[in-house]
Design a protein that fits this description.
The structure holds two protein chains of two kinds. Chain A is built from four helices and no strands. Chain A is mostly helical. Chain B is mainly α. In chain B, helix 1 runs antiparallel to helix 2 (27-52). The longest helix of chain B is centred in the middle third of the chain and has 26 residues, at 27-52. Classes of the chains: A mainly alpha, B mainly alpha. The interface between A and B is large, with 55 and 48 residues. Chain B: Pfam families: MrpF_PhaF.
Chain lengths: 134, 86
């Protein structure tokens, strides 16, 4: 390891470890909600580490701005997509395998009512815009 | 070299998650694994940019992260509401 550089290699190793841990969690965990936990949280940390190491390795202003944009976008969207997937699965009625939780919303599997309300809202919106045009 | 090791590790994780995309018992697992796959490919592109010196790969990574999030939103919206846009 003659060309080991601390600022470049330590974050990349850290990030690669967490990305691999997240992949193992996605493969091995028992149900969707625990898999989402592994994929959303660990991969955010892992990709942050790898982007930091890549920024140090390239040490270029153009590369740094692109990496900062990707990192900011990942930080904004990874929790959001995990939330969307969990919400869709919950409303479509996928029960969690792990027991002992309390279903406070009580809407497990009631996606049709949500879709119905959405169609109603779309209809109202269309009617309103039609009135504006006419 | 650490970059090669990291490339190997991330490629292994891409293969592991591809198993979950193909296997995944419910569609939610497939969407989740697909989203995770796009994030993994973004990381892989950044590492390839370091390994080969092609900085264009960083632009590809930016576009791929945008497309991955957009496809996740579209798939969840379609499966929950039955429509993507209007």
């Amino acid at each position: 390891m003659d060309d080991f550089r601390l600022a470049r290699d330590l974050p990349i190793l850290f990030g690669a470890f967490f990305v691999l841990t997240a992949a193992i969690g996605v493969v091995r965990f028992p149900d969707l909600y625990s898999r989402l936990h592994a994929s959303s949280k660990l991969v955010t940390l892992g990709s942050a580490g790898i982007f930091l190491g890549v920024a140090f390795a390239l040490s270029d202003a153009a590369a740094f701005t692109r990496l900062a944009a990707v990192l900011l976008f990942q930080f904004l969207t990874t929790p959001l997509s995990a939330y969307l997937i969990a919400q869709a699965a919950y409303l479509r009625g996928l029960p969690p395998i792990l027991t002992g939780g309390v279903d406070e919303w009580g809407a497990l599997g009631r996606a049709d009512e949500v879709a119905q309300a959405d169609r109603e809202a779309q209809r109202l919106l269309a009617a309103e815009s039609g009135e504006d045009e006419g | 070299m650490i970059i090669n090791l990291a490339l190997g590790i991330v490629t292994l994780s891409v293969l592991l998650v591809t198993y979950r995309v193909l296997r995944g018992p419910s569609w939610g697992d497939r969407i989740m694994a697909f989203d995770f796959l796009s994030v993994n490919l973004v990381v892989l592109f950044a590492l390839i940019a370091v390994r080969t010196g092609y900085l264009v790969m960083l632009d590809a990574a930016l576009v791929l992260s945008l497309l991955g999030f957009l496809s996740t939103v579209a798939l969840t919206r379609y499966l929950l509401l039955g429509r993507v846009m209007k």
